[in-house]
Amino acid sequence: ELTVDTGARGTKVSPNLYGVFYEDINHAADGGLYAELVQNRSFEFNSTDERSYTGLTAWTKTERGATATLAVTGEAPLNPNNRNYLRLEVTGEGTAGVSNAGFNRGLPLKAGKRYDLSLWARRADGAPLTVTAEAGTAVLGKATLRVKAGRWARYTGSFVSSGTTDAGRLVVQAPGGRTDLDMVSLFPRDTFKGRENGMRADLATMIADLKPRFLRFPGGCVTNVGTYDPYSLNQDRRRIYQWKETIGPVEERPTNFNFWGYNQSYGIGYYEYFQFAEDIGAEALPVLSVGVNGCGENRPLTDEAKLARWVQDTLDLIEFANGPVTSEWGRKRAELGHPKPFGLDYIGLGNEEIYPEFFANYPKFADAIRARYPSIKIISNSGQTSQGAWFDRMWQFARDQRADLVDEHYYNNPDWFLANNRRYDSYGRSGPQVFVGEYASRGNTFYNALAEASYVTGLERNSDVVELASYAPLLANVDYVDWTPDLIWFDNDEAYGSPSYHVQKLFSTNVGDRVLPSTFEGEARPVDDIKGGVGLGSWNTAVRYDDVKVTAADGTVLLSDDFSAGSAAWTPGRGTWAVQDGAYVQTAQTEDARSTAGSADWSNYTIEATARKISGAEG
Ligand code: AHR
Q: Which reactions does this protein catalyse (predicted)?
């Protein structure tokens, strides 16, 4: 029996409670939300960043009659921020060139849909370049670009695809002679809201469907790990995210080797983030570094002159978002296409810094913002709850600094979420508000979602002090997984929400005005009864399972509890599992339930699995 006290005043629900946290992790941007279909479009992939990279990553030579020599070089580049390009030397009759396989083993193309291509080229003589979209031996689209003799210039074309594929490639062919190529790009015309240089429609729609009130970006660890100098000072190693490097013409944005271990194009930059936030009806909530690293690395910025530039960049960002078109950065925003201010209300300073230098640097940023923009709400951070005494110290510092909000992060097992529903009941109401900027229960099963749903009732009940909350991370490309669990999973042409996605959507699209006190009387069902699912995946390497049984729809036992039948076929994602002392034990991090469940061979089976956890924190 559920009793609701309809006469009580209750708690007013924060109008901004439910938002999203977007980070370029798991290839969330390139090969994900950013609709660009060409990987390594500017030939900037570099083996000094990642050993497996070359300037030709994702590119293959194609010879059709003529022969080609390919070299990635930097002689007289397109501009100082785009240091490398492809030099294609073609000899003989016919044509030769390169093809790009995009992300996830191919380019997705849909019959009847229009695609826009563009590239920068330079040739001594004028010549036609043939660009085709192909799948197997079929040509699905074609455009001819007539390159003029002389300097670098941008050439554009478009085509309507005559077929559908998720394994296409883009082929650029040149006749005899030398052709320099850079920024080879292909976009579907149907980006989200039809924006040029825009977002992939299905993913953006799934995010928009959450009706998020805010968009926290660009990270996470990508905001504050790396070196501080800009690319223009020859910093070609991993740089901390610097917003000014990410606006303006895409060919003038440097790439970066981001914290998550891959090349990041900055095709989605600060202008696109603000535009996207507006397009989905959310407040933009940028997080900036205060010159202190986090995420396991620290080389604090102590040089006062350099720090002053970072403080100024932060003020400039607020002017970029909110300033009039007569201001320097407001004018820049207008030139990029948005004269109206974006209406920035919140700014995050730092992300999980666990170093005392944070206490020295933060006030320089906060004081400068307060002095110039007193109405902006400043969010300090507290790191992860698991950091214990440090977490408390960060909170005290935020109180002393009179921060408007404190950003809390936690990734725990589902049982923690069930046990901590009352976490915020006892939080003081007179200090900073809480921003639960990152949280998730470890796992991506129904049980996780259920535990989170329970937990969110506690956030909502306390939303007089919990002003904002966002699950993390938001996006994961199934072929480039850095972190699980995640809210939305995708490959190059499909996307699905995890059970947690549906919980977030359920709450976020059904927000009440007030939470009234209620009591429930009834028989509590042990949550263990409803645990289950195919996925044994979890982050916890100490979990041990027994009685594992996986059965295909036709009755074939794929894996049995004596670990004999089918055990060779059990290929659980990238995780490592082993039989130890008669139990099935996860010995290293694995992937989501889907990849844990099976290899490609299993895709035609309906799989039923049971497992009994015999020890460890979760199942
Ligand atoms: O959400 C994934 C990572 O978790 C974020 O980048 C970081 O802030 C946290 O440690």
A: Hydrolysis of terminal non-reducing alpha-L-arabinofuranoside residues in alpha-L-arabinosides
Report which DSSP code applies to 278.
H
Q: Are the beta carbons of 351 and 240 closer than 8 angstroms?
A: no
**Does the interface predicted TM-score (ipTM) exceed 0.90?**
yes
**What share of the chain has pLDDT > 70, as a percent?**
84
How far away, in angstroms, is 109 Cα from ligand 1 center? Answer: 33
Q: How far is the CA of 240 from the centre of ligand 1 (A)?
A: 15
Q: Considering only CA atoms, which of 454, 490, 418, 455 is closest in space to residue 204?
A: 490
Residue nearest to atom 3 of ligand 1 (CA): 220
The CA distance from 6 to 516, in Å, is: 7
> What are the phi and psi torsion angles at 321 (to 5°)?
-80, -40
Statement: residue 59 has pLDDT above 60: yes
Nearest to 32 by CA among 438, 486, 338: 486
* β-bridge partners, 149: 123
Ligand 1 closest atom vs CA 21:
1
Nearest alpha carbon to residue 184 among 124, 149, 244, 143:
143
Q: List Cα–Cα distances, 16 to 143, 478, 486, 590, in angstroms.
A: 47, 30, 22, 34
Q: Which atom of ligand 1 is nearest to the CA of 411?
A: 4
**Cβ of 438 less than 6 Å from ligand 1:** yes
Contact 32, 479 (CB under 8 A): no
Q: Picking from 361-370, 437-446, 498-507, which range would have the lowest pLDDT averaged per residue? A: 437-446
Q: Counting every residue, how long is the chain?
A: 619
Q: pLDDT digit string (tens) for 261-297? A: 999 999 999 999 999 999 999 999 999 999 998 888 8
Domains and CATH numbers, the chain: 11-30+192-520 (3.20.20.80), 59-188 (2.60.120.260), 534-615 (no CATH)
Can you tell me which atom of ligand 1 is nearest the CA of 384? 10
Q: What is the pLDDT of residue 576?
A: 45
pLDDT of 157 strictly over 80: yes
In angstroms, what CA-CA distances link 471 with 158, 203, 496, 504, 508? 38, 16, 16, 8, 12
Give the residue numbers marked as catalytic.
352
pTM as predicted: 0.86
C-beta of residue 181 within 8 angstroms of C-beta of residue 170: no
